[in-house]
Amino acid sequence: MTAKIKLYTNHGCPWAHRAHIALAELKIPFEEEIIDLSVPRTPEYLAINPRGLVPSLSYNGQIITESAIVAQFLADAYPSHLVPNGGTPEAALTRARINFFVDTFFSKVNSLYHKALFAKTDEEAEEAAAEFVKQLEKEVEPLLSDAGPYFGGSKTLTLAEVCYHKNKRDETLEKT
Question: Which residues of 17-43 are buried (b: 16+ CB within 10 A; e: fewer)?
Fold first, then answer.
């Protein structure tokens, strides 16, 4: 039996792109409902996701929220190139490395990128950009020592790129 999948999303939300990329990479058919983020959420959508955020995924009526959790669920439910099949220490280690990489980027580096992007002056932008590069070299580069072309030396896209999403978002979404 084919699962009934419905993605509640907004194409302008970069976090929702994680779900779109995972669905596209896994070639999973799904129904889509666009959530207008410029207005208060409807009571119907708040019943699905009380936080009012996107994406939310309905999988046979079960709701999954938060973009990384949605992407991880899809990778687990549809074994593929995104993550190794579970049940082995090697697979668990790869998943742990992916999760640590994504967590490190978003907790240590991402805010500096936005600080540079939205700086009020050129001087603030230059300072933030310099700090971004410094933290990227310190925190993220060591985690990529075996990367090429994808995380962990994979020859295909992995869950790391799906969850990082900035480098593959446009390329992957153009395919859908």
Answer: bbbbbbbbbbebebeeeebeeeeebee
Length of the chain measured in residues: 176
Residue ranges per structural domain of the chain: 5-77, 89-156
What's the token pair of residue 53? 């955020």
Q: Supply the pLDDT for residue 176.
A: 45
How far apart CA 29 and CA 8 sit, in angstroms, is 14
pLDDT by residue (tens digit) across 92-113? 999 999 999 999 999 998 888 8
The structure tokens listed for 170 are 């446009």
Average model confidence (pLDDT) across the chain: 90
Domain 5-77 indexed as CATH 3.30.1120.10:
no
Residues of the chain with pLDDT under 70: 1, 165-176
- Cα–Cα distances (Å) from 60 to 19, 57, 80, 101, 115, in that order, read 16, 10, 21, 31, 40
